[in-house]
Write a structure and sequence with these properties.
By secondary structure, the chain is an alpha/beta fold. Helices cover 44% and strands 18% of the residues. It has helices at residues 21-32, 51-60, 77-93, 109-124; strands at 5-11, 38-43, 65-70, 98-101. Strands 2-1-3-4 form a four-stranded parallel β-sheet, sandwiched between helices. Helix 2 (51-60) runs parallel beside helix 3. The longest helix is centred in the C-terminal third of the chain and has 17 residues, at 77-93. The protein is globular.
């Protein structure tokens, strides 16, 4: 039996809806790559769905393993305090789920390299 997997791209959220556009593009790209059975967005505040809502929905759809990817540049207070508490609550609600937490996307060497390459490219355009 195949374990159904999901990815949740977790962002801070903002009052301006266009703020989520890069995360939506990342979600759509992951979906086109079939990186998981389900790929969803979730937000800490200001936007929907919240992380608890997204995790509950994925559990309802029969997803058994979920990788939460923080779309943050680094491990700040939200990732050190708020996110672990939200995940603990979700694990208590859905003990059957295997919820995994990735490091902040901005800490990945490939992302750091991409940011540096972008800055270098912009500097050469002057």
């Amino acid at each position: 039996m195949t374990v159904r997997s999901g990815i949740v791209l977790f962002g801070h959220g903002a009052r301006a809806p266009e703020w989520a556009a890069p995360m939506e593009r990342a979600r759509d790209r992951l979906r086109s790559q079939a990186a998981a059975d389900e790929v969803e967005l979730a937000f800490l505040e200001f936007m929907a769905p919240t992380l608890p809502e997204a995790l509950d929905e994925l559990a309802q759809r029969g997803i058994a393993r979920i990788e939460v990817i923080p779309m943050f540049l680094a491990q700040g207070g939200h990732l050190k305090r708020d996110l672990p508490a939200l995940l603990d609550e979700a694990r208590a609600r859905h003990p059957q789920l295997d919820i995994r937490l990735a490091p902040a996307v901005g800490e990945a060497e490939s992302v750091i390299a991409a940011m540096a390459d972008y800055a270098a490219e912009r500097a050469r355009m002057r």
